[in-house]
Amino acid sequence: MRLRIDRVGSNSKNTLDLWFVDSDFFGFGVEDPYHEKKIVGETRIPAGIYKVELTYSPRFKKNMWEVLNVPGFSGIRIHTGNTAEDTEGCLLVGWSAERDFDGRFAIYRSTEAFRELNARLMTAHDAGAEIKIKISDEILERADLDW
């Protein structure tokens, strides 16, 4: 199974993503903003291709989808949430998105989107399929998004 995240909006407050599952549009995501030097709990993960596995989260005390081998990061999970304040580097997914007047992105219907994504991931996992995620900055790193 292949997941893809295209970062389509980025400013000093947060990052807006488009999510794809096996090349089909799935929904939206929101992440922390880019920082040249990592700020713990406030910096998005680097673009790249990563393996995703179901692992136990000591923090959440349950099995969750983890993005593995992210340089300089650990414990990166895929979970529900609406804004960058709901994440510390993890990936959030939802089915609708908006931007407020201060440039903050928010996603909605996150629980519904995550349930669907989780079901698809579990089906792939149970079938023994390898799950990978590609995160791309190439779509939009534009200075004009901070005005």
Helix percentage range: 10-25%
- Estimate nothing, just give the exact number of structural domains: 1
Q: What's the CATH class label?
A: Mainly Beta
Beta-strand residue percentage: 35-45%
Number of helices: 1
Largest sheet: spatial strand order: 1-2-3-7-6-5-4-10
Shape, principal axes of CA atoms: globular
- Secondary structure: number of strands: 10
Task: Report mean pLDDT, rounded to a whole number.
Answer: 91
Kindly report the CATH topology: L,D-transpeptidase catalytic domain-like
Radius of gyration: 14 Å
Largest sheet: 8 strands, mixed, barrel
Which structural class do the helices and strands define? mainly beta
Distance between the termini: 38 Å
Low-confidence stretches: 141-147
Order of helices and strands: EEEEEEEEEHE
Report the CATH architecture.
Beta Barrel
